[in-house]
Amino acid sequence: MTRAILAGLTEFALTALVIVLVILAVLVPLALSQPDPLEVLRLFVLGPFGTIRHMGNILEAATPTMMTGLAATVIFRAGMFNLGVEGSFFLGGLAAAATAVLLPLTGFVATPAAILIGALVGSLACIVPGYLRVRFGASEMVNSLVLNFAFLFAGVYFLNYVLRDPNAGALMSYKLPADFTLDRLLQGTRLHSGVVIAFLACLVGGIWLYGTRSGLNIRIVGSSPGFASHLGLPSSKLLMQAQIAGGLIAGMAGAIEVLGLYSRFSWTALPGHGWTGITVAILARENPFLVIPAALFLAYLQVGGDMLARNLDVPSEIVGLVTAAIMLAVTAAAIFRHPAFLRLIRDIKGQEQGA
User: Going by C-beta distance under 8 Å and a sequence separation of 6 or more, which residues neighbour residue 66?
Assistant: First the structure.
C-alpha cells in the first residue's frame, strides 16, 4: 500500500514538474517582451491570490468545469470518447431557464425542480450517441460532436420562439424569477452555492467509481472489454449507465451555471465548459478525486490570464496557449511512458523489471 502511494506521488510530482516547466516556457518569453517582466510574473502567479474577490473568481470559474470534468471522467472510464458533455451542459442550462420561465413553481421546490429538469433534458446529448454506439456500433465521438451543434441550433430556435423577451433588446429569455436563483456565498463575489454541489458531486463520484461494485464493473468494461465479457458482465448495460450518469451530471452543471450566475438565458453559442471539462478529466487522469484540483488549477490560470489582459494589455489568448501546451505535455507518451520512468515506478512498487 505504501509503495503504491509512493509510486502515485512520484507520478504526481513528475506531472507537476512538467506543468511548471511548460508555464515557464510560455510565460518567461512573454514577460521579457514587456517593460516590467517581474510585474507580468507577479500578476500571473500571485495575482489570483491577491484578494478575496480574485480567489472567489477561481472557485466561480472552477464550479462548472468540476462537474463537466466529472461527467467526462465517468464517460471515459467506461471506454467511450463521448463529447456530448458540451451539448448536455447547454441543454441543461436551457431546460433550467425554461422551467423557471414557463412553470408556476415557487418556494423551496423551485430551484431543485429546475436543476432536476435541466439534468434530465441535458442528459440526452450524452445518451443518444451512447445508444447509437451500443445499438449500431456508430462512432460516439463523431455522433456526439455533430449532435452538440444540432442541440445548439434547436435550443436557439426554442429560445427565439418560446422564451424570448421581446422587450429585452437582444436575444434572451424573460427574467428568471428570484425563487429559481442560487444563493450567493461570499459578498463581493459571484460565488454561489453551486460550488458546494460541485465539490460534493466529485467526492460522491469518486466513491462510486472506486468504492462500489457498479463503479468497479464500469472500470473493468472501460479498461478491458474482453475480460469483462469473460466475467459475464453486461457490457452494453454498463456502458449506457455511464453515459446516462455523465449526461445527468453535465446537464445539472449547465442548470447550476444558469441559476447561479444569470438573470436571463442568453446563450446563442456553446459555452465551452464541456470542452474544458474534457481537458480537466484528462489532466486529472480520469480520477474523480483529482478532478477538483485540476479544475481549480485551470481556473487559476484563467484568472491569472484575465489579470494580465486587464492590467498589462497582454492578450487573454495566452491562457489558451498555456493550457494547450500543458495538455500536450501531460499526455506525451515520450515523457510518461519513457522506459526509465516506467522502470522507476516498477522499482518503487517493488516489482521485477520484467514483470
Answer: 198, 199, 201, 202, 280, 291, 292, 295
Mean pLDDT of 122-148: 93
> CA–CA separation, 63 vs 195, rounded Å?
5
Q: Kindly tell me the burial class for residue 242, based on how many C-beta atoms sit within 10 Å of its own C-beta (0-12, 13-18, 19 or more).
A: buried
Question: Alpha-carbon distance 245 to 298, whole Å?
Answer: 24
**Cα 323 off chain centre by:** 14
351 pLDDT above the threshold of 70: no
What is the model's pLDDT at position 353? 46
Q: Which three cell numbers stand for residue 163?
A: 422564451
Tell me the per-residue pLDDT of 113-129, one tens digit each, with 9 for 90 and over.
Answer: 999 999 999 999 999 99
Question: Cα–Cα distance between 195 and 116 in angstroms, integer?
Answer: 17
338 has a pLDDT exceeding 70: no
Four-residue CA torsion sign, 63, 59, 331, 218: negative
pLDDT tens, 271-302? 999 989 998 998 888 899 999 999 998 898 88
Q: Which long-range contacts (CB under 8 A, 24 or more apart) does 204-207 make?
A: 205/70, 205/73, 205/74, 205/249, 205/288, 205/291, 206/287, 206/288, 206/289
pTM above 0.70, yes or no: yes
Cβ contact 56:296 at 8 Å: no
Give the separation between CA 330 and CA 298, rounded to whole angstroms: 14
Beta-strand ranges (E) seen in 232-345 are none
In this structure, the chain runs to a length of 355
Least Cα distance to 201 among 240, 243, 250 occurs for 250
Burial class (CB in 10 A: 0-12, 13-18, 19+), 211: exposed
Q: What is the dihedral angle through the alpha carbons of 245, 99, 274, 50, rounded to the nearest 10 degrees?
A: -120
C-alpha–C-alpha distance, residues 130 and 117, integer Å? 20
